[in-house]
Amino acid sequence: MELEDRVRQAVAMFMSGYNCCQSVVVPFADMYGYTREQALHMSASFGAGIGRMRLTCGAACGLFMLAGLEKCAIEGSDRASKSANYALVQQLAAEFKRRNGTLTCAELLGIRKSDVQASDPVASERTPQYYAKRPCPHMVECAASIWAEHLRTKSREQEK
């Protein structure tokens, strides 16, 4: 599957009811040996700014999960691999923030901090009004695009 198709799949997933993190992770999960169902499970808790707490944007969390699938420390003592992962996450976070102004779900949604603290865990009903007032489809597309760009750059570097 082409990378552009994976980006489109991410947006389509969000528009069909999956959370923002799931929508970013699932289209790329097969590249790392994970099934759709496994990817849905591992990314389920990170939607709506982590469990609907409106903290770090779920789409950005999905981007960081993909970084972990690509680069991680298998051994706890492997500081070099941890550092490589952290460097990649920081690079991806900086790009997401450059494009969107923030990594924080509440800020992206224009929600006041006092309203976030009172947020309940009930997922919003997905209606046309929900989609019309949310920047989330764009955040999903942005995160998936950043990952696709990362993969293209990595591929070019490997060809050299």
Explain the overall architecture.
By secondary structure, the chain is mainly alpha-helical. Helix content is 66%, strand content 0%. It is built from 9 helices and no strands. It has helices at 3-15, 20-29, 36-43, 58-70, 79-100, 105-109, 113-117, 128-133, 136-159. The longest helix has 24 residues, at 136-159. The protein is globular. The model has no long low-confidence stretch (mean pLDDT 95).
List the topology elements.
Layout: H1 3-15, H2 20-29, H3 36-43, H4 58-70, H5 79-100, H6 105-109, H7 113-117, H8 128-133, H9 136-159
Keywords:
mainly alpha, globular, 9 helices, 160 residues
Described by the principal axes of the CA atoms, the overall outline is globular
Largest sheet: none
Number of strand elements:
0
Helical amount among residues, as a percent range? 55-70%
The averaged pLDDT comes out at 95
What is the H-and-E element order? HHHHHHHHH
Unreliable spans: none
**What is the first-to-last residue Cα distance?**
23 Å
Q: Percent of residues in beta strands?
A: under 5%
Q: Using only CA atoms, what is the Rg? A: 16 Å
Q: Give the oligomer, counting copies of the same chain as homo and different chains as hetero.
A: single chain
The number of helical segments is: 9
Given the helix and strand composition, which structural class is it? mainly alpha
